[in-house]
């Protein structure tokens, strides 16, 4: 689906995965069973990994989604070098008032694919049953 000229992603959850695995395809998903996904997200076991929520593969690049903590709503996306490339957190007004759980702010590096980042935010919400 295109929205104002932007390519959107179709996200599919793989069956028979213990922790969860999501594939993302650019554009509308028709019958692309043999096509490789544009990205893949694998949920990590929190007992073994602490705040690490999942691993993201985009081609040969690897990224990680890291929780901001149990009390904070949101997460950050870091590259394999540990650099933060995007961060999603609850919207906070200048007065300090924090808005609802479903009101988020997204900050990302300018060189990052915006459509991909929004797709990852959606996958995070699906994983945590917040959408």
Instruction: Round the Cα radius of gyration to an integer and report it.
Output: 15 Å
Helix content: 10-25%
Strand portion, in percent?
35-45%
Give the strand order, joined by hyphens, for the main sheet.
3-4-5-6-7-8-9-10
Tell me, briefly, the overall form.
globular
Helices, by number, come to 2
Main beta sheet: strand number and arrangement?
8 strands, antiparallel
- What is the overall pLDDT average? 79
Low-confidence spans: 1-5
Order of helices and strands: EEEEEHEEEEEH
Question: Separation of termini?
Answer: 20 Å
Number of strands: 10
Main structural class: mainly beta
Please render the helix and strand layout as text.
Blueprint: E1 2-3, E2 6-7, E3 9-13, E4 21-26, E5 39-43, H1 46-49, E6 52-58, E7 61-67, E8 74-79, E9 84-90, E10 104-108, H2 114-127
Antiparallel strand pairs: 1-2, 3-4, 4-5, 5-6, 6-7, 7-8, 8-9, 9-10
């Amino acid at each position: 689906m295109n929205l104002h000229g932007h390519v959107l992603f179709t996200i599919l959850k793989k069956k028979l995965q213990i922790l969860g695995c999501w594939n993302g395809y650019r554009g509308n998903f028709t019958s692309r069973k043999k096509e490789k996904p544009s990205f893949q997200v694998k949920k990590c076991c929190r007992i073994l990994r602490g705040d690490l929520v999942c691993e993201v593969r985009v081609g040969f690049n690897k990224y990680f989604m890291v929780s901001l903590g149990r009390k904070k709503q949101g997460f950050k996306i870091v590259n394999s070098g540990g650099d933060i490339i995007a961060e999603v957190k609850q919207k906070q007004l200048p007065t300090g008032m924090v808005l609802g759980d479903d009101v988020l702010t997204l900050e990302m590096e300018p060189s990052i694919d915006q459509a991909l980042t929004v797709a990852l935010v959606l996958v995070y919400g699906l994983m945590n049953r917040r959408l």
